[in-house]
Design a protein that fits this description.
There is one protein chain. This protein has 15 helices and two strands. The protein is mainly alpha-helical. The protein has one domain: Ammonium transporter fold, CATH 1.10.3430.10. Strands 1-2 form a two-stranded antiparallel ribbon.
Length: 453
Amino acid sequence: MLAARTSPATQRISTRMVLPAGGLLLVLAAVVALAWSDSAATPLPVQPPVDTGATAWMLVSTALVLLMVPGLAMFYGGLVRTKNVLGTMMHSFAAMAIIGVLWAVAGFALAFGPNTLGGWIGWDPGNVFLHKIDATVSPGGVPDLVFAMFQGKFAIITPALIAGAFAERVRFRGYAVFIALWSLLVYVPLCHWVWASDGWLFRLGAIDFAGGTVVHISAGVSGLVAALYLGARRGYPQTAMHPNNLVMTLMGVGLLWVGWFGFNAGSSLTSGVKTAQALAVTQVAAAAGALAWMCIEAVHHRKATSLGIASGILAGLVVITPAAGVVQPAGAVALGFVASGLCYGMILLKNRLGYDDTLDVFGVHGTAGIAGAVLLALFVRAGEMPEGRAAITQLGVQSLGVLTTIVYCAVMSLVLLVLVNRTVGLRLGSAGEMAGMDHELHGEHGYGLLNLN
């Protein structure tokens, strides 16, 4: 039997970490106790028959979206330096643990419950721990638990995306507390506004088929605010900081592409024509984004790069996300081309301005998410426009949704960053950053190599 080994780094558990974690657990326990008292057993009404085809597709889609999280871990992990590869990948896997529990305990009840606090959020006490939907079926024939788990994967991957903006310079405990608070106070309200039946953006007719505003703009803007607040990595930009494993990055983006079919086509919540339309434009937009990025690099640098094609794929996938259910393949090609051009330009601007959005979370997710959410109004297929409204009217509605998301995420994220940094600590110290997150925070090394640069 191997003896348990505990590094000095893992022994530094202080009350600064224990008290916030304990407080969060106490709050959750109080919520559970309150909700359970309001959810007395009542006879279930007659349920619609289960549509086995639609349910099977939603189960597959849920698994595909979860696959995106290790895909993201590989994508991000390959882009950082060797000494930070495990710490960076841990951000994605920790989100599966932390948000996976929070979503089941209260996140779903808050996101899809009836309006409360003036519509800022929803609340259904019966759905704490998903209690009320344990055996219910939606009118579309899919068990409600499948829908809840599908939506839970979106809640997991969104804060994991943010981590790329401040990669290589954050304490793990601070990150854990930040994403827990961010999920409840930023993601859940946005999810309610956009996708709940009584959310104000939903009622306004804003189109966000699979998460352009809820996922990508929120992650991009919050990541940018975090990068600016925490400051650049030690030595950036004077010191070259090369990716440790672009092979892993390419494998990661491949998994993201595969998982995105569940992300977008699964958001149809059916297994039919709408599903096929969303799947087709997802494929086309990703390919168009990759092709456009290769062409841009060929003109600008006289060569196409593996990182460039990965970035183009991601730009195309992000831009089509809000539009996947309402545009045709021609519109998907146009959006993919536009997204790659805008994202490429944003990354050049970042380099000129000198801020350290480490893995270009705003440069790709934020920029392409904004482009897709706004420009989809110009490509909506006939019959998909809410109430037959004109494209210019829809453009205004989309712009309002984007602007609201940007402002809300920026302000709330800054408040949470300051709070977490001044309590449990968020920015890694100079010595720890030099040693690397893997050794300093986790007592491990990703590759077992002596060269940790």
